[in-house]
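Structure (tokenized):
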């Protein structure tokens, strides 16, 4: 338990290093200096850090947080793909509320949203993985230091908040509270539409009777309604509100095949840290996929976390190379629920060998390197 508190303290100390007296914590958002002129006026006039790089996607959601109903005409010019970005509105709404509608406060709130989500997730995960033994602590700590969760903090994207909401929903579902789980997953769908894949966990309640079928159907409807209502609002603004952005889903195995090929071809001319980050992250994905297949072959194949793992494994096999591209790539964030599901299910099975546990959590290495 002392080690658990030390991990929390280490995260907070690391976050504190990103503070700037004038810009606060907006370094997490990575606004590109070159795009300063295209920012909406309220953001441009608020103190924030301008990054020397090309920036990252957090800049778009942060600007949405200042105009969460997309009423200002200039918001379209500030976003790269307005209908696509606007679908993932929950984190922007939360930042707007936390900042009381004031742009400077909103940007600070958005910057730290995933830090707060990380702290709450650390607590929620203790319900599934009690860090009271060496093995429990290792799985709990690995869940909180994977590249997926730490990169969501570092570049202020919706994945950390998404992971928290999915964990809260699964906590309710595992305790038999189907409706509560559906309400939370409905909110999660507004953070990232792929979060609705976790609704497969309602398979736990399926029985060979009408009552269970009606219950599961009602829960699935509750999950979908918030996103459908928001898409209907967006349809009044944009003509296209596709559920999945063009180019992110493709034929099975193409994306992972491309990633493996790029690692092989880049072995001779890619810097060792970048190459290592990609290799260990892909090994972690492979180990999680192997573990999920083992779970599906067992007697608890319909357990909530098993269903979540299965849904994300299937999605991983159809992800476009653009999701796998990078060092290690966005796939560690997109598949963050798979990482959590793997560790939670491993924690409930004391017979799991350490080599498999280590392999499934190798992306802790690039995760820690990212924030240090």
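Design, position by position:
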């Amino acid at each position: 338990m002392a080690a658990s508190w030390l991990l929390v303290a280490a995260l907070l100390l690391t976050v504190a290093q990103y503070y700037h007296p004038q810009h606060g914590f907006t370094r997490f958002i990575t606004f590109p200096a070159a795009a300063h002129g295209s920012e909406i006026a309220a953001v441009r006039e608020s103190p924030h850090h301008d990054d020397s790089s090309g920036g990252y996607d957090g800049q778009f959601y942060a600007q949405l947080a200042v105009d969460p109903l997309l009423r200002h005409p200039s918001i379209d010019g500030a976003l790269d793909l307005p209908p696509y970005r606007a679908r993932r509105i929950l984190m922007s709404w939360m930042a707007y509320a936390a900042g009381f509608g004031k742009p400077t406060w909103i940007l600070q709130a958005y910057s730290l949203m995933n830090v707060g989500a990380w702290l709450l997730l650390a607590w929620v995960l203790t319900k599934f993985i009690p860090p009271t033994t060496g093995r429990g602590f290792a799985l709990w700590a690995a869940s909180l230091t994977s590249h997926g969760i730490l990169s969501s903090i570092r570049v202020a994207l919706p994945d950390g908040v998404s992971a928290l909401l999915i964990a809260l929903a699964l906590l309710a579902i595992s305790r038999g509270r189907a409706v509560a789980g559906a309400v939370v997953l409905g909110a999660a769908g507004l953070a990232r539409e792929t979060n609705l894949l976790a609704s497969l966990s309602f398979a736990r309640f399926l029985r060979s009777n009408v009552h269970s079928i009606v219950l599961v159907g009602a829960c699935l409807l509750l999950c979908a309604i918030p996103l459908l209502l928001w898409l209907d609002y967006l349809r009044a603004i944009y003509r296209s509100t596709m559920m999945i952005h063009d180019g992110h889903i493709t034929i099975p195995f193409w994306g992972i095949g491309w990633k493996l090929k790029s690692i092989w071809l880049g072995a001779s001319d890619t810097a060792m840290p970048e190459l290592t980050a990609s290799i260990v992250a892909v090994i972690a994905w492979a180990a999680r996929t192997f573990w999920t297949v083992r779970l599906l072959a067992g007697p608890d194949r319909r357990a909530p976390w098993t269903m979540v793992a299965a849904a994300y494994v299937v999605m991983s096999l159809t992800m476009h190379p653009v999701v796998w591209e990078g060092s290690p790539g966005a796939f560690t964030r997109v598949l963050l629920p798979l990482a959590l599901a793997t560790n939670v299910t491993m924690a409930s099975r004391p017979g799991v060998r350490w080599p498999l546990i280590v392999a499934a959590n190798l992306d802790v290495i690039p995760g820690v390197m990212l924030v240090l």
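Reviewer-requested clarification: Strands lie at 31-32, 50-51. The chain has 20 helices and two strands.
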